[in-house]
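Structure request: Polyisoprenoid diphosphate/phosphate phosphohydrolase PLPP6, Myiagra hebetior.
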Amino acid sequence: PGGAAAAPLPEEDCMKLNPSFVGIALSSLLAIDLWASKRLGVCAGEGSAWGSARPLMKVIEVSGHGIPWLLGTFYGLCQSDSSAAREVLLNLLFALLLDLVMVAVVKGLVKRPRPTHNKMDMFVTISVDKYSFPSGHATRAALVCRFVLRHLVLAVPLRVLVVLWALIVSISRVMLGRHNMTDVLFGLLLGYALYGVVEHCWLSPATAPALFALW
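Returned structure:
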């Protein structure tokens, strides 16, 4: 009958004319992140605003790469004749491996593509390196920075240099166009948190005698 009320449409057929505030906020933040990251990618190519500084930025990129850190730590571990130094180096090796695994897992889950202005000429990449979130360099920089400041006795100027290195490596990721700002910020937070895991699982002759027997 004409006066009968129409049956309500199923929820999935209804147009959502009022998207949630959270959805709008996240979309806006993502748009700002992409816009600002592109503006800050001043070394993304030779023709960019600071293109002449790109070679220097790439040297900084290598300084935060996982392979030099892994090889250097392993070499130091093999050459060390001090039990205390071997303990520190073994835990640094554990930290670096944990960092690689966690970054690879998160990148594989999130699968955020690299910025469109990125030039794929990175130093030694693996399959998940086609993804952007999080920045492995930023994660490693934060992790190594905390580790070095906690376990190496350094003069104040050297401690400042370590912190500056971590910041410069992180900033260079956006300047080179490798990452968006949120990739770097999350990477720094993840690296900071991973150091806590390393400290909690600290390897010593008492907790991991088999490992120390190898050295």
